[in-house]
């Protein structure tokens, strides 16, 4: 019996397609249009790739890009191992597990701009617990005049705010490991390091890739926290790409260069996300092939 093809299901996704068109595709096409034109009053003149060349050759934007990569890779190098360690130490059952989960998740519930305000007060030398305490030890701590202090503080702030995300992802991955693996390890008298190396870490690979991808995307687009905390200073030492883009588009009203900058910004994040997607797909294929061979 021949089945009659029914395409009415497309009507169910039509509202979503319309919403995506208005919220993503149309604004993106508008940005692309601005990036290849010079807007003078009510007139527009085609300039080709001029704004892209200007953006790529801007030393301020090059510096912001380097700072952005340095920040993203630094916080990943800290948050991923720290998140794994926290997940390993978290209780696995009982009321202690629930209590610890609530405590761990608390920083994630704080809005981004509030995080910046909290840490701005926390690091003040006159009333802030951290700033006053460090100064009391004899170190002249100031995020408004010392670039190193500002950098370290922003990194600490991000680690406090977002390490719980990695910890929760790893915790869920650890809880999904069958107890039979641990029983076999106990029978073989495997050390804690061997259990982590050969049982836990391989099972955490997928959630770690997702966690790293999420953290890279957010850290590469970070804006509210450092802007509220340091305003990009001292000087431009903590000015990241998002702050440079906002200043160019809103402060200077340079629509063409800021549109080109936005597209370059978007392509960098898209390229890195694609690399992570390929990594996830390859790991899934290797896992299927391993199970098939077994």
3D structure, described in words:
The protein has 294 residues and is mostly helical. The longest helix has 39 residues, at 255-293. A two-stranded antiparallel sheet has the order 1-2. α3 (59-89) packs antiparallel against α9 (192-220). The mean pLDDT is 86. It contains 12 helices and 2 strands, in the order αββααααααααααα. Belongs to the binding-protein-dependent transport system permease family. Keywords: Membrane, Transmembrane, Transmembrane helix, Transport.
What features would you highlight for this structure?
single chain; 294 residues; MetI-like fold; two-stranded antiparallel sheet; Sugar_ABC_transporter
Quick recap:
By secondary structure, this protein is an all-alpha fold. 74% of the residues lie in helices and 3% in strands.
Protein topology:
Elements: H1 10-35, E1 37-40, E2 43-46, H2 50-56, H3 59-89, H4 95-105, H5 112-122, H6 129-136, H7 147-175, H8 179-187, H9 192-220, H10 224-230, H11 241-251, H12 255-293
Antiparallel strand pairs: 1-2
GO biological process, one term: transmembrane transport
Domain ABC transmembrane type-1: 65-276
Membrane topology: Multi-pass membrane protein
């Amino acid at each position: 019996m021949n089945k009659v093809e029914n395409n009415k299901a497309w009507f169910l996704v039509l509202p979503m397609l319309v919403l995506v068109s208005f919220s993503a595709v149309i604004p993106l096409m508008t940005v692309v249009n601005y990036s290849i034109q010079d807007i003078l009053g009510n007139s527009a003149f085609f300039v080709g790739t001029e704004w892209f060349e200007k953006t790529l050759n801007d030393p301020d934007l090059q510096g912001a890009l380097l700072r952005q990569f340095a920040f993203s890779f630094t916080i990943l190098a800290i948050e991923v191992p720290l998140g794994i360690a926290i997940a390993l130490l978290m209780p696995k059952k009982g009321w202690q597990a629930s209590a610890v989960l609530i405590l761990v998740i608390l920083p994630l519930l704080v809005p981004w701009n509030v995080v910046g305000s909290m840490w701005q007060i926390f690091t003040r030398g006159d009333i802030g617990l951290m700033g006053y305490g460090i100064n009391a030890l004899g170190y002249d701590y100031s995020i408004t005049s010392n670039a190193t202090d500002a950098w370290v503080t922003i990194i600490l702030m991000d680690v406090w705010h977002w390490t719980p995300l990695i910890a929760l992802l790893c915790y869920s991955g650890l809880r999904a490991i069958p107890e039979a693996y641990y029983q076999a390890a106990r029978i073989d008298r495997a050390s804690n390091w061997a259990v982590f190396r050969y049982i836990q870490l391989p099972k955490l690979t997928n959630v770690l890739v997702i966690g790293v991808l999420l953290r890279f995307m957010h850290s590469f687009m970070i804006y509210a926290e450092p802007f509220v905390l340091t305003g990009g200073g001292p000087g431009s030492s903590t000015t990241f790409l998002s702050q440079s883009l906002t200043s160019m588009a809103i402060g200077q009203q340079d629509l063409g260069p800021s549109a080109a900058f936005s597209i370059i910004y978007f392509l960098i994040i898209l390229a890195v996300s694609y690399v992570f997607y390929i990594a996830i797909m390859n790991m899934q294929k290797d896992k299927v092939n391993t199970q098939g061979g077994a």
